[in-house]
Amino acid sequence: MSLKIDTYTHLGSPLHRAETRAKIIVFMAVIFAFALVRDLALVPFMLAVTAATYAVSRLPLRYLIGRLRYPGMFVLVLAIFLPLFAGQTVLVQIGPLAVREEGLILMLVTVGRFISIVTMALILLGTTPLLELIDALRRLGVPALLADMTLLTFRYLFEISDALLRMRRAMRLRGFELTRLDGHTLRRMTALIGSILIRSYEQADRVYKAMRLRGYGARPTDEAVGTGAAGVESMTAVQANGAGQAAVAFAEVEFAYPDGHVVLSGVDFRVARGERVGLIGPNGAGKTSLFMLLCGIHTPSAGSITLFGETVKPGGFRPEIGLVFQNPDDQLFSPTVADDIAFGPQNMKLPPDEIARRVEEALALTGTSDLRDRPPHHLSGGEKRMVSIASVLAMRPELMIYDEPDANLDIRARRRLIRFLQDGQQTLIMASHDLEMVIEVCDRVLLLDEGQIVADGPPRTIMGDAAVMEAHGLEIPHSLIPHHHLGSAGQQVAKPHNA
């Protein structure tokens, strides 16, 4: 997401130069006063104050129009129906519909309040960098959680706006034009808005899961905090803490969604400490669900799951396990990169100096030290990926889980990620459709299909078996396909591409 609301915060108007905390107090007081307006006679005064304030801000008109457009759609619907259904005094009768005086007044007051309140909020946001605004809220005594939720709210508003714009473009490319307001257009727009709201809810749910996995709302036990192995420590120290004990053990695990759809059935495998395992399979095989079970987000319908010898308890916080989501935007929710990385250690109730040390350590490990003060959502795809990994490494997990870590990465970012994964010291489980990456990073592969482990062994053995791969909707990686080369006598000799 791009925080486009910061586009004009560099302007030099008196409102731009005003002290942020004082500006927040004044604007919030004005907005609160506007919200109390019920008299139509006060609406012109309210609009005049708003227009004068906007003029002082020197913000361009396109800034206001561009940001009022989509919220205005919802108010437009309200403006249409209020005069028809609110009140008793009929002004105009149009067939079965009657325009009522009380509803018309209510509509004018509501629209006036909406325009004034939203415009004043946009002036505050347009004249103050968002991160500075969040920091000022904290200094005013607003709880850090509420300030962070404010940031998340703005983030989702802009993501909804961006998604709506992208979907409208896609509809336009397929012949849909918003040129007239008829039944067909209303149905399409209603479906569009419903789709946007569902997508927003689904992403909010993923962000909440990411927060829970980094300790939000949970209190780890002393044992859980104390046994986490440092990402920079050698595996000798890790293995000494329970040598010979499996890092992960699934025993006949089954999982089904509430609607009865079975996702995993009879899943049984073990991962040793220090092992690097690739989880491959077609879309819908159950890979992400398996990760959610391992992290305690989902509860198995049957069977048991143990992590370092202890049964995984649904909803519990285990700092020794770190999950990197497929979409880094689901994991990055704090004002700055440093804040995001500190989120997990803070929930582990660590001392401030230890939190600062872990933040610097994670930044150094992932090569993102120069990004520490930047908003996470201003970063490139590769930078977001490394920061999301750093946010998990700061908890010093013994087990790292990666769900499609190379998704949406360019070639250079992918190569950098592979080098990082190869150098990692933790036990690793990685789900990926990039089978070449699995070959380079992992020393063992589990093939999951239709909720069952159907193959388990060395990557080149499993992924080089054409019959097995084809039977489960996969293709042999290019590097394992025999290629023909001319021998010394001119005859063709078959050998692997990477031989």
Describe this structure in words.
- The relative contact order is 0.09.
- The longest helix has 31 residues, at 183-213.
- The protein has two domains: 4-213, no CATH class; 223-484, 3-Layer(aba) Sandwich (Rossmann fold), CATH 3.40.50.
- With 499 residues, the chain is an alpha/beta fold.
- α13 crosses α14.
- Mean pLDDT is 81; it is low at 220-243.
- The chain contains 18 helices and 14 strands.
- The chain has helices spanning 14-17, 20-35, 43-57, 61-85, 101-126, 130-139, 144-173, 183-213, 222-226, 235-240, 287-294, 337-347, 352-366, 381-393, 411-423, 435-441, 459-463, 466-471; strands at 90-94, 97-100, 248-256, 262-271, 276-280, 302-307, 310-311, 321-324, 399-403, 427-431, 444-449, 452-457, 482-486, 492-496.
- It is globular, with a radius of gyration of 28 Å.
- Helix content is 49%, strand content 15%.
- The chain has a six-stranded mixed β-sheet, with helices on both faces.
